[in-house]
Specification:
The structure holds 2 protein chains of 2 kinds. Chain A is an alpha+beta fold. Helix content of chain A is 39%, strand content 23%. Chain A is built from 17 helices and 26 strands. In chain A, strands 7, 10, 11, 14, 18 and 20 form a 6-stranded mixed β-sheet that branches. In chain A, strands 8, 9, 12, 13, 15 and 19 form a 6-stranded antiparallel β-sheet that branches. In chain A, a hairpin with a 2-residue loop joins β12 and β13. In chain A, α1 packs across α17, α2 packs across α17 and α13 packs antiparallel against α14. The longest helix of chain A has 37 residues. The two termini of chain A are 69 Å apart. Chain B is mainly α. In chain B, 69% of the residues lie in helices and 5% in strands. Chain B is built from 12 helices and 3 strands, in the order ααβββαααααααααα. In chain B, strands 1-3-2 form a 3-stranded antiparallel β-sheet, with helices on one face. In chain B, α5 crosses α7. The longest helix of chain B is centred in the middle third of the chain and has 36 residues. Chain B is elongated, with a radius of gyration of 26 Å. Classes of the chains: A alpha+beta, B mainly alpha. At the A-B interface, α10, α11, α15 and α17 of A face α1, α5, α6, α7 and α10 of B.
């Protein structure tokens, strides 16, 4: 029996016997304590790490939202993106009600000439002009459709020299149309003349005003240089001249020629601001006629001098022997806010046929009797009836066709119950950009996911074989990759397009031709990394087949890294597709993201939102995918964290 | 080392040869793209093609050569032009390149003109823009990267890194488009198109701004990201810790040790980029109307001017391969520790 000897601190010997030793845990059952934490797998662990990375989670969420939108929007959105609707093309973006000033479907127009007659900027609809923010008047001496007011300068054109009789050389300006006046109804002529001398280098002349009827005339203002404003009671004048009944008359202004103070020739003129006849008659046609015959607006009066296409003259035409010129008419340029939605989808005049009207009647929207005409129209269903009122109705007996001119609310006519809102406007075909973009995105996503899947699987197999077997197989496979990889993708794409034609499938195939090499390369590296490990050796010694080693032991370990780098294939496919289409190298028959961008390329300067909206989406996708990919990489491979 | 370089170059040559041969055969197997112009011009074009070995000239019509390309009667003789069999064309092409450096003639862009000089004409514009953009982007990118790395995990770093991430993600055509809308159409600072050769000098200089900005953005971000990553790695290394512990100031240690080592992978990529710039940016050239080889490619593609297209393809391919070879070789030259091609 062995004895142990040992010494205490002081050097004394201590004998230790066998009995001094006891096994302290002899009666205890010892086994491994259970982990208090829950067991985790590689994937769960990676997921946990991924969730800690805030930006990647945000990226993943954004990707999710966009994919969801791409799936849902094309189904849910009511807008039509199949057949072009020409009357709602190029609508601006609208989210809020018009007039809110931001994202409200309006556009700001600046320096547009104002059409006085239409009471709106020229070529714009009056009811769609929300607000005129600013105006700027300029003066013109040229007669213009859009000018207003000014002074009518009537010039004596006769050659007049010293010694000639001025009365023989008078020129006159008079109404072309006669009008009826009488002694009862207080016909009053208000005259407003310009007292500015020297306009257009001419001299104010002596004039008189006559009332001409039949072959007689009454002087109502004798030769004078009175350029102030005054009124003449025509009825009184008639009475004084013993004309008591109705008489058809016209106003004539005569103008004498003038000489300059030094005796040289000079043209004489009078500038007519206004020459207005009013009456106390309440008959509307009389008032209207008088209004259009008077000179209220010099520009309009001179414009009316043009002979109409049927050879007659306008009622406001003033004929003259001298010249008529315009002085300082106003042309107004306005800046305004224009509601494009109201213009294109608001109330408009339309001509519809009997069948359309019948449809509405049948649907119970309204009542209409063709025999009675417009007055019989009655709206029954306020919500759905697009017709507001019927203006006129014509019937072509020969073809038996009714043409009914109606005022419609265009949005109801197009099947909307309320004014639609296109979040990002419409394109040149009248397609809603949101629906169109997401529809294109859906196609692009499907395409890229399919292409990526094919590339991924093929690349995985290729890389696995090349990496696992190594040696000559690897060498040959690598050379093949080198050569294929040496072809620039644009060249590959070009060849594919030439051979297979331009369609989505071609593009997919072309993508797959080169796309798998990235995955293959990465898989190969991973296989090289893992195939020499001890656990592989152990498994091989136990008799595992190559297949088992590849799929059971190496691949699961390599999967994280490979998936991470392959995730980015999806956005890069979308990117290459849109780039190619945008460049015009690829013309696809299906609406994809690229075709939308390519179709709207020409509207870059006029309507940039059509490009910017899809561009923003694609950028968002790329950014999110990059964030997501970075997060995945960090999660699967924590040692690489921080490096790019 | 030299053995490796030679091997690498030889391999690249073989790869280039195979790619070009394949592309040539594939392109020539497509339906023949006929030239435009009068009959006389066509006749001289086809005679030239006969000289090049692509087309055969027969006095009588036959069926053995496929579709009759062109028939021309001058005097008593009739010329019937047929396409040669593909391999005859291939060897004709090889002989032409080796003996005469003749790459075929254009059918559409400048009919009957040799394709090589057409490309050469378009090269300067591409090269100028790209070299300018490299000159702008390399210093800026590296500077941003260094700043981000030195201020790692501070607000500055986050701002730089986020910006870089965003700009790397945005597709280049989107960036070009947005810049064009803002700078050219809205603010009207820059011309909306590449100025013509007759434009005044100031206009020409302005014309360079947008392309250079667009091309630089991507590279700046790339360099910044790369530099930051490399420098961060070096900063955490043991030898830098040693440098600090032996008494160097932070500035000294960074400038003398960290930066130099971080530059090892960055410099080769700059060299490769310098060659790569010859490839130009097809997107930019197309959108901004720059008469470079990128826009030529698209014109040739759309007009099916296969010969010009092929020379352009060859150029892109060779540029890519040369850049790859240079990248590999320069590693060895810059950092002696890296033995290229060495066995493990």
């Amino acid at each position: 029996m062995a004895e142990f000897k040992t010494f205490d601190e002081k050097g004394n010997e201590i004998n230790v016997k066998k009995e001094d030793f006891t096994l302290i845990e002899r009666d205890k059952k010892i086994h491994d304590a259970e982990f208090e934490t829950k067991p985790t797998t590689f994937l769960k662990d990676a997921f946990k790490r991924f969730c800690k990375n805030k930006s990647s989670v945000v990226g993943a969420i954004i990707i999710g939202i966009i994919v969801l939108l791409a799936l849902i929007v094309p189904i849910v959105s009511p807008h039509d993106i199949k057949s072009p609707s020409p009357d709602i093309i190029r609508l601006p973006a609208k989210l809020f009600n018009s007039g809110t000033g931001f994202w409200d479907g309006t556009k700001k127009c600046t320096h547009v000439v104002y059409d006085w007659e239409a009471e709106a900027p020229a070529n714009y609809k009056k009811n769609a002009v929300l607000k005129i923010t600013n105006y700027e008047d300029s003066y013109t001496d040229a007669v213009n459709k859009y000018a207003s007011g000014g002074i009518l300068i009537f010039l004596n054109d006769n050659v007049y020299e010293k010694g000639d009789d001025p009365l023989e050389k008078t020129d006159y300006i008079q109404n072309y149309s006669m009008y009826t006046i009488n002694a009862v109804d207080n016909y009053i002529l208000s005259v407003s003349l310009s007292n500015q001398d020297g306009l257009k280098d001419c001299k104010l002349g002596i004039y008189r005003i006559l009332l001409v009827y039949g072959d007689k005339s009454i002087t109502i203002k004798d030769w004078s240089r009175d350029y102030s404003d005054y009124q003449i009671d025509l009825s009184k004048v008639l009475k004084e001249n013993n004309v008591n009944g109705k008489v058809k008359a016209r106003i004539r202004v005569e103008l004498q020629p003038e000489l300059a103070s030094d005796g040289s020739r000079v043209q004489s003129y009078i500038g007519i601001n206004k020459l207005e006849i009013t009456s106390s008659s309440t008959d509307e046609t009389v008032i209207k006629e008088l209004e259009s015959i008077s000179i209220n607006d010099a520009n309009a009066t001179i414009l009316a001098a043009d002979r109409k296409s049927d050879g007659t003259f306008d009622i406001g035409y003033w004929q003259s022997t001298g010249r008529r010129e315009l002085y300082q008419a106003i042309i107004r340029y306005v800046d305004f806010i224009y509601d494009v939605y109201e213009e294109k989808l608001g109330q408009t005049t339309k001509t519809i046929g009997k069948s359309t009207m019948d449809d509405y009647i049948k649907a119970g929207y309204c009542e209409y009797d063709y025999l009675v005409g417009p007055s019989s129209f009655k709206v029954l269903n306020e919500k759905k009836c697009p017709i507001v009122s019927v203006t006129s109705q014509s019937y072509n007996k020969k073809d038996q066709i009714y043409n009914i001119e109606v005022e419609v609310l265009n949005y109801k006519y197009k099947g909307y119950t309320s004014m639609p809102k296109f979040l990002f406007g419409t394109d040149k075909n009248g397609y809603d950009m949101v629906k169109l973009s997401f529809n294109g995105l859906r196609t692009s996503l499907i395409l890229s996911v399919c292409a990526s899947a094919v590339c991924f699987i093929f690349g995985l197999c290729w890389g696995a074989i090349s990496g696992y077997f190594g040696g000559n197989i690897d060498l040959i496979m690598e050379r093949f990759c080198d050569i294929l990889g040496g072809i620039p993708w644009i060249v590959m794409m070009t060849l594919a397009i030439f051979y297979l034609g331009q369609n989505v499938v071609t593009f997919g195939i072309a993508l797959c031709l080169t796309g798998w090499m990235g995955t293959a390369g990465r898989t190969r590296t991973q296989f090289y990394r893992f195939k020499g490990r001890e656990y592989i050796l152990a498994s091989r010694t136990l008799g595992s087949s190559d297949m088992r080693l590849i799929f059971k032991h190496i691949l699961p370990n390599a999967m994280g890294t490979i998936i991470t780098s392959s995730v980015l294939m999806i956005p890069s496919t979308i990117f290459s597709e849109s780039t190619l289409t945008y460049l015009g190298l690829l013309t696809l028959d299906t609406t994809t993201f690229g075709t939308i961008l390519a179709n709207n390329k020409l509207e870059l300067s006029s309507n940039p939102i059509l490009i910017l909206f899809p561009a923003a989406i694609i950028s968002l996708i790329m950014i999110s995918f990059n964030l997501f990919g970075n997060g995945l990489r960090d999660a699967f491979n924590p040692s690489l964290k921080g490096s790019e | 080392m030299w053995k490796y370089v030679l091997k690498r170059i030889g391999l690249a040559l073989v790869t280039a040869f195979i790619i070009l041969s394949l592309s040539f055969i594939l392109i020539k197997s497509l339906p023949y793209s006929k030239p435009l112009g009068t009959d006389d011009q066509k006749y001289s074009f086809y005679l030239q093609e006969v000289n090049l070995g692509f087309v055969v000239d027969l006095p009588v019509k036959t069926t053995g050569y496929g579709e009759l390309l062109f028939s021309y009667t001058s005097g008593k003789t009739t010329h019937n032009f047929y396409q040669n069999p593909i391999f005859v064309q291939y060897f004709g092409w090889l002989t032409n390149i080796i003996t005469k450096w003749d790459w075929g003639q254009s059918t559409y862009i400048l009919p009957s003109n040799p394709a090589g000089p057409i490309i050469a004409q378009k090269l300067p514009a591409s090269i100028k823009i790209n070299i300018l953009s490299v000159l702008v982007s390399v210093p800026l990118g590296i500077l941003l990267g260094i700043i981000a790395a030195l201020k790692k995990n501070t607000a500055i770093d986050h701002v730089i890194s986020t910006t870089v991430m965003i700009f790397i993600s945005i597709p280049s055509f989107v960036l070009i488009t947005v810049l064009m809308v803002v700078l050219c159409y809205n603010l009207k600072w820059l011309p909306t198109q590449w100025p013509s050769s007759t434009a005044p000098t100031i206009e020409k200089i302005k014309g360079y701004i947008l392309p250079v900005i667009c091309l630089s953005f991507g590279s700046i971000c790339g360099y910044a990201r790369f530099t930051r990553a490399e420098l961060c790695e070096v900063m955490e290394s043991d030898y830098l810790l040693l440098a600090r512990t032996k008494g160097l100031t932070k500035r000294q240690s960074i400038i003398r040790h960290a930066l130099r080592n971080a530059m090892v992978p960055i410099v080769p990529s700059i060299i490769a980029e310098f060659i790569g710039v010859l490839g130009g940016s097809m997107i930019l050239e197309n959108l901004y109307g720059i008469p470079g080889i990128g826009s030529l490619y698209i014109t040739a593609f759309n007009s099916k001017d296969y010969n010009v297209l092929f020379v352009d393809m060859a150029l892109f391919t060779v540029i890519g391969l040369v850049a790859g070879v240079l990248l590999d070789i320069s590693y060895g030259f810059i950092d002696p520790r890296i033995r290229m091609g060495a066995k493990k």
